[in-house]
Design goal:
The chain has 181 residues and is α+β, with helices and mostly antiparallel strands. It is 28% helix and 20% strand. The chain folds into 2 domains: 44 residues; 99 residues, no CATH class. The relative contact order is 0.15.
């Protein structure tokens, strides 16, 4: 069994092209999500609130550790400072709500799905985007972390079956990643 993402629940199958430290479905960096969940758990646990160290010290240490993990795990933090300048945009494919039916995760009716490769700080990155009406949205974690694209949250549809959550990706990110191959 592969690693399960604690953010979206996707379980790696071993056939993914995303780096081992990144969820191929939602793009979350496993260490970041785990650090955030540990931080929340420690903050809400009453037994940790009566320790010798004040909560503010514990939270400060967790914040610093989380920041260090985040900086180490995400080479896009430094963006163009370490970019080799080599990017290559692949062909695009049109995806539609009609094609996916009720599993369509977006509020827009269709879009042009693309994958762009880039070498950033020595890492091969794949940015999956969806364009509609002149706007381009980053739909995988790598694309979202660059700040170059509009946020996915602007078009990500609420899940009517699970209030407070979003409709899960029905494989559109994987389809986009295949365009980079």
């Amino acid at each position: 069994m592969g690693k399960a993402c604690q953010k979206c629940g996707y379980e790696r199958t071993g056939a993914e092209t995303a780096p081992e430290f990144e969820c191929p479905s939602c793009g979350a960096i496993y260490q970041k999500v785990e650090a955030a969940l540990a931080s929340r758990k420690a903050a809400s646990n009453p037994s940790t609130q009566n320790n010798y160290l004040p909560n503010s010290v514990v939270m400060g240490v967790l914040a610093v550790v989380g920041l260090i993990v985040w900086l180490m795990a995400d080479p896009d933090i430094f963006g163009s400072h370490f970019a080799s300048g080599s990017t290559r945009e692949q062909s695009s494919v049109k995806v539609t709500q009609e094609e996916y039916g009720s599993k369509w995760p977006y509020t827009i009716p269709s879009g042009s799905l693309r994958c762009e490769r880039a070498l950033v700080a020595g890492y091969n990155k794949q940015y999956v985007t969806l364009s509609y009406a002149g706007s381009t949205y980053g739909i995988n974690g790598s694309a979202q972390s660059t700040g170059r694209f509009k946020p996915l949250a602007a078009i990500w549809r609420d899940n009517p079956q699970h209030p407070g959550s979003k409709v899960p990706d029905p494989g559109i990110i994987q389809r986009g990643l295949a365009l980079c191959n």
